[in-house]
């Protein structure tokens, strides 16, 4: 493949170097990606050192002075930290309890639809919100929930109730998050369950039918057990992601009147860090979040790797 | 709406009726918000500010669209969004395919180390502030490249592409090698066409991600000439303080609501038109990704 002189020089050095040289074309192919990961992932990762420094504009991240755990002391001593941590965990918990189960139920119901064309139509319609950004969805939701003339409050009015300020009332805001999240994600989330259902062998249903099983019994004893592993895996990984409470959605729906219930770690870091330029302190907040999130994912991987002999192990 | 059973022998019972009814309500719930926005965009101010469900406008007016199409920033936003989507997606495909191809070679020295270091980025990141400061130090803040380079590839994309390429099988490649083809020629002329299914998935994923990306624009865009569509929308729909400065209505017969609705429609129309045809590719990507490689 290579000229004999080059080959001779290489042969004298180690076997590994020879292998590397043989694969040089592939390293060239990898080079842009390696540079990308260094510049846009590993350098920012090293940038978390700012959490232990006093940021100075003149010296930047790398030249700023070390201050130890000062920012973390401030963090753990501040009331607002416990508020955003509580909001983050609470909203994630609600998503786990309500949003997580909705695609499972939706997939089971879709599976019961008998008419193929109609089923495909329902599926296509259900995917639509998934393809639209939260900026647009936030705008549309605000319009629909408007207290003065929004559709939802109009319907509430038909039943004789007073209009509700959904997006400005702390009592309702989290419910808006959960319901709009279900609306946005239920269709798309059901794909993976539908695929699992499609993988069930039809023989199972046929023999159940011969035994006189009802539709409910077939769902209960064949379909649900067949997708149970998928459910468990996705649940565990959802659990591993509880530090991410849904920045895109909250950021495009919230406003100062609901900060008390809606401000999560990510929105706090954006406002206090980026907008108010408290770079060093909010790097510490972000680091806390990322370390906890990372540990949770590692834990999730340990748990899932024990299920079905590592078939679902991530690494 | 009434389903006719062609492929099953069982009779249509009350339960089928119930599910069909439930699903019909669900479909209305999925589609109504978008239909409402569409109706609003064609409405007169009187109808737009009236109460109630809006299924059909009593009279249709294009005034809101006239305002939108007279607004310079919409064109700038559209142009920049198209630019980042086309250029960003093309670069992503090249970088991702090349890296995935290299990592699919089982004989590549340091293969598992490199893969591990790439996968690690899925689970740990520097976070918002270090990323922003690093971007600033690169001089990228305030440039169009800031919207393309950080999205160049991802561990996830490389992994699913690698798994696909690894599953192709060595026959084709070996045959080309026997013919004396250069390895890089094999990569681009032999294997790239065979990898089309995964390239299609990545193209659609990346293009939709670029079209919808807004947060990067929010933090990295500093001048009006670099503004993307999502940022125009964000200022118009969410940041009420800046609303007045974006669209100044020159047509009397409009309200900010009809103009907002028309802007939404103009910006999501391309997605709405293509997604029903592309959803299969999207779904396929989910499946490819869930196969362990």
Notable characteristics:
heterodimer; A: about 325 residues; mainly alpha; MetI-like fold; two-stranded antiparallel ribbon; 17 helices; B: about 290 residues; 2 domains; 14 helices; about 70% helix
Instruction: Quickly give the CATH architecture of the largest domain in chain B.
Output: Orthogonal Bundle
Order of strands across the widest beta sheet of chain A?
1-2
Which chains have the largest interface?
A-B, 93 and 99 residues
Q: What percent of residues of chain B are in strands?
A: under 5%
Tally of individual domains of chain A = 2
Secondary structure elements and their pairing?
The complex is a heterodimer of chains A (315) and B (293).
Chain A: H1 4-12, H2 15-22, H3 24-46, E1 53-54, H4 60-63, E2 65-66, H5 70-77, H6 79-99, H7 101-112, H8 116-127, H9 134-144, H10 151-158, H11 170-198, H12 202-210, H13 215-240, H14 247-251, H15 259-262, H16 265-275, H17 279-306
Antiparallel strand pairs in A: 1-2
Helix pairs in contact in A: 5-17, 6-11, 7-11, 8-11, 11-13, 13-17, 16-17
Chain B: H1 14-41, H2 45-48, H3 63-69, H4 72-104, H5 111-123, H6 128-137, H7 155-166, H8 171-178, H9 183-194, H10 196-212, H11 215-220, H12 229-237, H13 243-246, H14 256-290
Please outline what is shown here:
The complex is a heterodimer of chains A (315) and B (293). Chain A has 315 residues and is mostly helical.
Task: Please give a structural write-up.
The complex is a heterodimer of chains A (315) and B (293). Chain A is mostly helical. Chain A folds into two domains: 4-66, no CATH class; 70-310, MetI-like fold (Orthogonal Bundle). In chain A, 72% of the residues lie in helices and 1% in strands. Chain A has 17 helices and two strands. Chain A has helices at residues 4-12, 15-22, 24-46, 60-63, 70-77, 79-99, 101-112, 116-127, 134-144, 151-158, 170-198, 202-210, 215-240, 247-251, 259-262, 265-275, 279-306; strands spanning 53-54, 65-66. Chain A has a two-stranded antiparallel ribbon with strand order 1-2. In chain A, helix 6 crosses helix 11. The longest helix of chain A is centred in the middle third of the chain and has 29 residues, at 170-198. Chain A is globular and about 75 Å long. The model of chain A has no long low-confidence stretch (mean pLDDT 90). Chain B is mainly α. Chain B has two domains: 14-65, no CATH class; 72-246, MetI-like fold, CATH 1.10.3720.10. Chain B has helices at residues 14-41, 45-48, 63-69, 72-104, 111-123, 128-137, 155-166, 171-178, 183-194, 196-212, 215-220, 229-237, 243-246, 256-290. The longest helix of chain B is centred in the last third of the chain and has 35 residues, at 256-290. The interface between A and B is large, with 93 and 99 residues.
């Amino acid at each position: 493949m290579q000229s004999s002189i080059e080959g001779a020089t290489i042969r004298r050095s180690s076997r590994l170097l020879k292998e590397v040289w043989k694969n040089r074309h592939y390293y060239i192919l990898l080079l842009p990606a390696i540079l990308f990961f260094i510049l846009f992932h590993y350098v920012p990762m090293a940038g978390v050192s700012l959490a232990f420094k006093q940021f100075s504009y003149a010296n930047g991240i790398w030249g700023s002075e070390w201050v130890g755990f000062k920012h973390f002391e401030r963090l753990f001593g501040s009331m607002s930290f416990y508020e955003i941590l509580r909001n983050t965990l609470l909203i994630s918990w609600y998503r786990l309890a309500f949003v997580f189960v909705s695609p499972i139920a939706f997939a089971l119901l879709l599976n019961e639809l008998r008419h193929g064309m109609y089923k495909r139509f329902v599926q296509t319609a259900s995917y639509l919100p998934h393809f639209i950004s939260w900026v647009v969805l936030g705008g549309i939701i605000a319009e629909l929930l408007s207290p003065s003339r929004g559709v939802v409050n109009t319907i509430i009015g038909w039943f004789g109730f007073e209009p509700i300020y959904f997006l400005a009332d702390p009592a309702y805001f989290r419910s808006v998050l959960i319901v709009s999240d279900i609306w946005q994600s239920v269709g798309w989330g059901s794909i993976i369950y539908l695929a699992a259902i499609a993988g069930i062998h039809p023989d199972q249903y046929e023999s159940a039918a011969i035994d006189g099983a009802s539709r409910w019994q077939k769902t209960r004893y064949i379909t649900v057990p067949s997708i149970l592993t998928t459910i468990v895996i996705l649940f565990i990984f959802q659990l591993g992601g509880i530090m991410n409470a849904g920045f895109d959605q909250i950021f495009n729906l919230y406003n100062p009147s609901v900060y008390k219930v809606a401000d999560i770690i990510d929105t706090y870091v954006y406002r206090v860090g980026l907008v108010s330029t408290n770079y060093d302190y909010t790097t510490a907040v972000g680091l806390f979040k990322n370390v906890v999130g990372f540990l949770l994912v590692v834990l999730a991987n340990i748990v899932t790797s024990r299920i079905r002999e590592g078939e679902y192990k991530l690494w | 709406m009434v389903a006719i059973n062609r492929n099953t022998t069982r009779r249509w019972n009350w339960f089928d009726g119930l599910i069909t009814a439930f699903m019909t309500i669900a479909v209305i719930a999925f589609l109504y918000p978008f239909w409402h926005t569409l109706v609003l965009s064609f409405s007169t101010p009187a109808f737009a500010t009236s109460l109630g469900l809006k299924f059909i406008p009593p009279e249709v007016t294009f005034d809101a669209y006239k305002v939108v199409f007279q607004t310079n920033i919409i064109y700038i936003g559209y142009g920049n969004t198209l630019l980042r989507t086309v250029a960003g997606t093309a670069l992503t495909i090249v970088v991702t395919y090349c890296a995935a191809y290299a990592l699919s070679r089982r004989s590549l020295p340091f293969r598992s180390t490199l893969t591990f270091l790439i996968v690690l980025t899925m689970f740990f990141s520097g976070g918002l502030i270090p990323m922003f400061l690093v971007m600033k130090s690169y001089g990228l803040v305030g440039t169009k490249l800031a919207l393309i380079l950080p999205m160049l590839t991802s561990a996830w994309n490389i992994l699913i592409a690698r798994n696909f390429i690894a599953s192709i099988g060595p026959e084709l490649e070996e045959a080309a090698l026997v013919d004396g083809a250069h390895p890089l020629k094999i990569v681009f002329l032999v294997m790239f066409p065979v990898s089309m299914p995964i390239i299609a998935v990545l193209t659609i994923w990346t293009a939709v991600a670029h079209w919808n990306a807004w947060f990067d624009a929010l933090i990295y865009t500093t001048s009006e000439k670099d503004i993307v569509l999502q940022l125009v929308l964000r200022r118009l729909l969410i940041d009420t303080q800046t609303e007045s400065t974006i669209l100044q209505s020159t047509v009397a017969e409009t309200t900010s609501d009809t103009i907002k609705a028309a802007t939404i429609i103009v910006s999501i129309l391309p997605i709405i038109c293509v997604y029903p045809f592309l959803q299969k590719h999207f779904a396929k990507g989910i499946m490819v990704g869930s196969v362990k490689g």
